[in-house]
């Protein structure tokens, strides 16, 4: 059982690891933005939209896949299996291992990104 509540700040510059297996970060992306496709072997991503609108494409990394750190993969190519449009009040859970990229075509998109360890 938790001993106390934990506060996460949207002003944080990096993921705050205050609870084992869980971290959070507020992210703001300005158009035009197209993120490099990525996948995480050991963590699920939960996106919770604060403001704006973006597309999130999910699928499989292809081409030259780099392991930039343990269990963290990046590529310049991916096979897109699904495309999700996200806007304020919506969330998207991206399971560990599923490649994904965020695209912002206009305005500013802000979201919380929660990283949850795969058990």
Question: What report would you give on this structure?
Answer:
- This protein has 119 residues and is mainly β.
- 0% of the residues lie in helices and 63% in strands.
- The protein contains no helices and 12 strands.
- The protein has strands at residues 16-19, 22-30, 33-34, 38-40, 43-51, 53-62, 66-69, 72-74, 77-87, 91-94, 99-104, 108-117.
- Strand 7 (66-69) and strand 8 form a beta hairpin.
- The radius of gyration is 15 Å and the shape is globular.
- The mean pLDDT is 90.
Describe the secondary structure blueprint for this structure.
Elements (H helix, E strand, L loop, with lengths): L15 E4 L2 E9 L2 E2 L3 E3 L2 E9 L1 E10 L3 E4 L2 E3 L2 E11 L3 E4 L4 E6 L3 E10 L2
Antiparallel strand pairs: 1-2, 2-12, 3-11, 4-8, 5-10, 5-12, 6-9, 6-11, 7-8
């Amino acid at each position: 059982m938790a001993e106390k509540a934990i506060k996460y700040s949207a002003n944080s510059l990096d993921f705050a690891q205050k609870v084992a297996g869980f971290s959070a970060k507020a992210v703001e992306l300005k158009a035009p933005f197209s993120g490099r496709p990525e996948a995480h072997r050991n963590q699920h991503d939960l996106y919770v939209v604060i403001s704006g609108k973006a597309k999130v494409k999910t699928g499989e990394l292809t081409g030259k896949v780099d392991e930039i750190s343990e269990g963290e993969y990046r590529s310049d190519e991916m096979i897109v299996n699904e495309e999700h449009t996200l806007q304020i009040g919506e969330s998207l859970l991206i399971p560990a291992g599923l490649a994904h990229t965020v695209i912002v075509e206009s305005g500013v998109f802000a979201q919380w990104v929660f990283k949850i360890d795969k058990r």
